[in-house]
Amino acid sequence: MPSPSAAPSSPSLAERVARLEARQEIEELKYRYLRACDHKGPEEFRACFVREGADIDYGELGAFATVDELVTLFSRIALARGSAGHIVLDMHHGLHPQITFRSPTEATGRWTLRFRQLNLADETERVMCGEYDDRYVVEDGAWRLAKHHFRTLWSLSRPLPQGYAVDQGGLQ
How far is CA 115 from CA 50, 92, 129, in A? Predict the structure, then answer.
């Protein structure tokens, strides 16, 4: 029978609290990312990622060698405007986070995405479900995305109904 000293030690209260705080910070990072997408904020979007070396793959939108390439695409799509306002309107809901800590400064995560998009140029609506596969690291004292992969599970595209009206009063 092993001696009590050979049993693995349980994390201390301070370690458990630190892990809970880190999990909360990672969840808040993901929510900032999703909110930046919906509110069309390229600077806020960029701030969610590491400065250099991120591994980014958005499936059908492509893989990106740098975060700045992704931000350029994001800005082109999200900030495009027509006579009535923004052309593309998005709604991102991140659900079911599974966060695993590799160390006090590195973690991985999986999230389900519920996504809805209106494309007013094409007059279509897209509803989609997908999965994010992320890696998080601490950079300059804050959690950032170092790996960000997205895979579509299913999607539905349909024309907007005749006579639709869109109010963009909450967007700049």
Answer: 24, 5, 6
Residue (of 83, 43, 63) closest to 150 by Cα position: 63
Across-strand partners of 88?
A: 119
**Taking 90 as the threshold, does the pLDDT of residue 86 lie above it?**
yes
Q: Indicate the pTM of the whole model.
A: 0.91
In whole angstroms, what is the distance from residue 96 CA to residue 105 CA? 22
The helix/strand/coil state of 116 is strand
**Residues 171 and 86: beta-carbon distance below 8 Å:** yes
* Of 130, 115, 121, nearest in space to 160 by CA: 121
Round to whole Å and give the CA distance between 41 and 118.
Answer: 18
Cα separation of 3 and 24, whole Å? 37
Six-digit token pair at 37?
């997408």
Rg (CA), the chain: 20
